[in-house]
Amino acid sequence: MQTVPNHQVENLQIEDDRTGLSVECLKRAFLDNLFYVQGKFPKIATKNDYYMALAYTVRDRLLQRWINTAVIYTERASRTVSYLSAEFLMGPHLGNNLVNLGIYDQVKQAVSELGLDLEDLLEQEEEPGLGNGGLGRLAACYLDSMATLEIPSLGYGIRYEFGIFDQDIRDGWQVEITDKWLHCGNPWEIARPEWEVYVKLGGHTEAYTDEHGRYRVRWIPYQVVKGVPHDTPILGYKTNTANTLRLWTAEAPESFDFGAFNSGDYLGAVQAKMVSENLSKVLYPNDDSSQGKRLRLAQQIFFVSCSLQDMIRIVFRQNVPLEKFHEKFVVQLNDTHPAIAVAELMRLLIDEHDMGWDQAWSITQKSLAYTNHTLLPEALERWPISLFRSLLPRHLEIIYEINYHFLEEVKAKFPGDSDRLRRMSLIDESGEKYVRMAHLACVGSHSINGVAALHTKLLQQDVLRDFYQMYPEKFNNKTNGVTPRRFMVLSNPRLTNLISSKIGDSWIKHLKDLKKLEAFVDDPEFCHQWRSIKSAIKHDLVAYIQKQNGISVNPDSIFDIQAKRFHEYKRQHLNALHIITLYNRIKANPDIDITPRTFIFGGKAAPGYYMAKLIIKLLNSIADVVNNDPDVRDRLKVVFLKDYSVKFAQRVYPAADLSEQISMAGKEASGTGNMKFALNGALTIGTLDGANVEIRDEVGAENFFIFGLTAPEVYALKARGYRPLDYYHSNRELKAVIDRIASGHFSHGDTQLFKPLLDSLLHRDEYLLFADYQAYIDCQDNVSQVYRDRDRWTRMSILNVARMGKFSSDRSIRDYCQDIWNIQSVPIELGECIQAKE
Ligand code: F55
């Protein structure tokens, strides 16, 4: 209980009910919230009412920490990380907050004493799916780690009304359904209309001379949009730090439609309102290319401008001179989606705050840092100049000027190299003109990082090679990590408890301490417990699959799982070729001795990505045939679990025996699913791509199933001239697999259905499935062999977990703090007196 100043003694009871952590107190607070917030009593309350009452009970406890944190940061004007990301894939908040507050068990008991089941209430939460995949989830893990490490930070993004679509499967095809995550309200956020800001769009610029005779530019916009911040507290694990995730909603400024309304144009006024609100309406569901859509660029400038204006407001409020913006804030750009920040910060400093160019440029470069997440050339964002000018005329002028200075620098460093100037320019002039956002980000930042060692190396050698030669000192690697709080403690309590019973629970904050598990790898009792836990979790998933898909699965089979976005480079269809290979072996010899396997898939395809959707259809078609063929006799099962999400991921990682990380080498920047599976005791079958390389180095090659071409071998093969047909003709099993699909065996005799996929493989095979096929099959055969030796498998599983310490997002964040952000932790004491303004 907190000590309170005397004059507040009458409030003691209220204070206690909103902060107390005992079971009694939690129960009282819960019923109070049910009554006063939901307006219900137990007899008529729905599950959702109970969920909301519990969420508010937890939120009250967060608020105390949140306000304390804000008070201390404000008083000390603490240096702050500003993490700009178009996506934050947070996952459900309730369970995570219970874990981080350290009250999971108390709350479980409290609700159970009221006749409720905590797991049931947790299920109620509609997760905010404000991201596509790895990039958005990484941002969420980093917020968790920054709060846990007591690093002052603000996450800035967009409060999309519709997040990533819900996925249904009909007749084997993906169908997209709008995600209405806000329909029951969101108890975790607080709107802050008092900190609204305005963002200009469109129109034109005018030059003028100011009262000091200086050349200035004014921007007359076509449209102005209001941004309203909505704040969510981000609590650290067993600390008092609660940082903020600040997401912006777009609204029409009242004054804007007022005029139209008065002049009788009611519909025009409503129309203007709708156009404004569109900016935060929906998350773009592509995770590979941005397609140059105007609304997408408008979303980017909207959240970036709102966020930078908000930072400037904070700088002023804390009496920091604007010239020291870069001392108060370091701004990390999560890919190029917020890269317009380079031009927007320049514009704010120069046009709105009267700063000179050189000083503004120095502040901009010192403040910004850029993280790249892709090696796919088609994923590098570029905007047609005409579109850019029509939406952001002032920014285009600024970019031209940055480009002028930049190209002068390049000329000075590489005299006479006009080809280099053309390659490096911020403007692509090879055909239709484009603004190159990655180039803008590189030039405007003091740091450029990749997300795994191999990825950073390939950026330096290939995608950003010219920039590496120009600014080698800016480049650095920050291998991704994941938070063990959500992806172990919350999602896998059984393994968490077993581990903590042996080595204590320090590993939850210091993941490297998992190493201590190695001491138990030869302890038969421990190995037995390890195996029983994995088996119990698999039984749970079996029940779920039975309920969801109506498929009965053998819990003793290998749970072989590939869960991630669908993309050709990730090669879910290579996995399909393996399934059909095993199926063919059974058909050829029904009594063959095969280690039973259950192939489980989860993931969404971008709605406009035809080939990815066809791969989903193929997997579902294979499932229909394989699961119902009497010859197979339960040795193989194929399961597509629809609507993969964070909530769902937490259920599948703990149940996996085998994690599929089989992208073509040189394409997956890092991967983070690979880390979550391994941390939960799955073994990995993977290529030497992204962070797989580092995972194998850590866990030991003998505990990792590696196969396939390396990145240099991929380049060499492509350079020689790759001919997939040669592999088809020379590999009997491969040919039989392709012919089986082509025959219509999985499509009720329809030989056309999968033709586009087969043609693409036979005649192009951009991602070298055929070249890697035999190595993959051999490796899978070895997996099946090893799995039969259950003691050996268990030992490998334990060693994987024991050696995954490097892949905590805490380690990643420590590295960012040291190498890029130059920031220290600011511990928060509870019970600091919060006083009202005099
Ligand atoms: C989203 C929108 C656009 Cl326009 C482009 C890409 C994305 C996106 O979601 N990218 C993404 O998730 N990239 C992934 O980032 C992870 C975190 O760094 C990596 O682990 C993963 O390799 C990479 O593909």
From TrEMBL:
The modification N6-(pyridoxal phosphate)lysine is found at residue 676. Its EC number is 2.4.1.1. It is an enzyme of class 2 (transferase). Coiled coil: none annotated. Its cofactor is pyridoxal 5'-phosphate. The keyword Lipoprotein does not apply. GO terms for cellular component: cytoplasm. It holds the Pfam family Phosphorylase. GO terms for molecular function: glycogen phosphorylase activity; pyridoxal phosphate binding. Signal peptide: none annotated. GO terms for biological process: glycogen catabolic process. It catalyses: [(1->4)-alpha-D-glucosyl](n) + phosphate = [(1->4)-alpha-D-glucosyl](n-1) + alpha-D-glucose 1-phosphate. InterPro entries: Glycg_phsphrylas, Glyco_trans_35, Pyridoxal_P_attach_site. PANTHER family: GLYCOGEN PHOSPHORYLASE (PTHR11468), GLYCOGEN PHOSPHORYLASE, LIVER FORM (PTHR11468:SF3). Belongs to the glycogen phosphorylase family. This is Alpha-1,4 glucan phosphorylase. It comes from Chroogloeocystis siderophila 5.2 s.c.1. The lineage of its organism: Bacteria, Bacillati, Cyanobacteriota, Cyanophyceae, Oscillatoriophycideae.
